[in-house]
Amino acid sequence: MSAPVDPYRDWGAAYVLGSLAPAQRREFEAHLGGCPDCAADVAALAGVPGLLSAVPRDRAVALLEPEPAGTPSVLPGLLAAERSRRRRARVLAVAAVVVAALAGAGVTTLLRPPPAVVVVAPDVPMRQTVPSPVTASLRLVEQPWGTRIEVRCSYAVPTSGPTPPVFAYALYVVDGQGSAVQVATWTAGPGSTTLPVATTRLVRSEVTAVEIRLVDRDLVLLRVEL
């Protein structure tokens, strides 16, 4: 029996490019917290928008359309290896096609490599604003297109009393004007550790705070000021 196919495995490129519909984005962000493979795909594609910004958005999205699904009859291990190889090949192909498209359009400006990734305040612990079993830390990674936020959120098991239920959480980014924008959501229960990855167009200097809120009550559980 073959392993089940991850229905989200081709969403990573569209997520990085910002072409997912709002409902799909929320669904994929919830999936990222429990899928290391998809989270790794998003991280691997993070530098691609810097290249794709040189060509029209609709053409850039078309370059990353997933390949038609085939029906190979192979063992699960071979199938997983083939999918991994195709994902890596697609990223390399995108870069090559972008360079070719620029050359065909007569663009003479040399493509400069994206700036080196700068990790700002890695693993910064978040402060609890109300007592809860939830703790978290984060790091902000500068990118040519904005900032990537990597969160590690843990939900401790209470030592006494009834077991708390699973809750939905949301990650908010606060800018210099005090405006808070939701950039990720996920669910978690006692004993779990989730690794949400979010992106924002704000550059690092424009992010003044990050919050984790309890969705049902819009209550700020954890906050860090930057």
List keywords for this structure.
alpha+beta, Arc Repressor Mutant, subunit A, Immunoglobulin-like, 2 domains, 5-stranded antiparallel sheet, 6 helices
Helix/strand layout:
Elements: H1 12-17, H2 22-32, H3 36-45, H4 48-52, H5 57-63, H6 76-104, E1 118-125, E2 127-128, E3 134-143, E4 146-155, E5 167-175, E6 180-188, E7 193-194, E8 197-200, E9 207-214, E10 219-225
Antiparallel strand pairs: 1-3, 2-10, 3-4, 4-7, 4-8, 5-6, 5-9, 9-10
InterPro entries: Anti_sigma_zinc_sf, Znf_put
Keywords: Membrane, Transcription, Transcription regulation, Transmembrane, Transmembrane helix
Domain Putative zinc-finger: 14-39
How is this structure best described in words?
This protein is of the alpha+beta class. It has two domains: 12-104, Arc Repressor Mutant, subunit A (Orthogonal Bundle); 118-225, Immunoglobulin-like, CATH 2.60.40. Helix content is 30%, strand content 31%. It has helices at residues 12-17, 22-32, 36-45, 48-52, 57-63, 76-104, and strands at 118-125, 127-128, 134-143, 146-155, 167-175, 180-188, 193-194, 197-200, 207-214, 219-225. Strands 1, 3, 4, 7 and 8 form a five-stranded antiparallel sheet that branches. A five-stranded antiparallel sheet has the order 2-10-9-5-6. A hairpin with a 2-residue loop joins β3 and β4 (146-155). The longest helix has 29 residues, at 76-104. It is globular. Mean pLDDT is 76; it is low at 107-111 and 115-121.
